[in-house]
Specification:
By secondary structure, the chain is mostly helical. Helix content is about 55%, strand content about 10%. Strands 1-3-2 form a 3-stranded antiparallel sheet. A hairpin with a 5-residue loop joins strand 2 and strand 3. It is globular and about 60 Å long. The termini are far apart.
């Protein structure tokens, strides 16, 4: 069934397909996977090693979501043992500039964010 890409006049509508897409491409593992894959095709176990803390299940589910959305491509490699290579698609590559901007913002502002957290926690702690 085709989605209403116009979202009935509101991108904030519960039925807007962009909400689901945001959920599937803007989470931490998706962003990290795309960052790793920007360097070229990568095998599953290499991804798992590079993404400290990701479970095999989370990595597998995230890769499947990204592939389903056309963001990454999965290629079976004829080797012994057989392997799978993941890489960014042309569509996926279009996400890298905004994600890079968010990454740069986070790196540039982490001290200010941490100071805000400390101030918030101090103001909202139970004594």
């Amino acid at each position: 069934m085709p989605h209403d890409t116009h979202c009935n006049g509101s991108r904030f509508s519960v039925d807007c397909p962009s909400r689901l897409l945001f959920d599937q491409v803007a989470d931490k593992w998706s962003m990290m996977i795309m960052t790793v894959l920007n360097g070229g095709g990568t095998r599953f176990n290499d991804l798992k090693r590079r993404l400290e803390g990701v479970s095999q299940k989370s990595l597998s589910m995230t890769l499947k979501r990204l592939e389903r959305n056309g963001i990454i491509a999965r290629t079976v490699v004829a080797s012994t043992p057989p392997g799978v290579l993941y890489e960014m698609t042309p569509l996926g590559l279009t996400l890298l500039p905004p994600f890079q901007a968010i990454y740069l913002w986070a790196n540039s502002n982490m001290d200010a964010v941490e100071a805000a957290r400390v101030a918030y926690d101090k103001d909202h702690s139970e004594s």
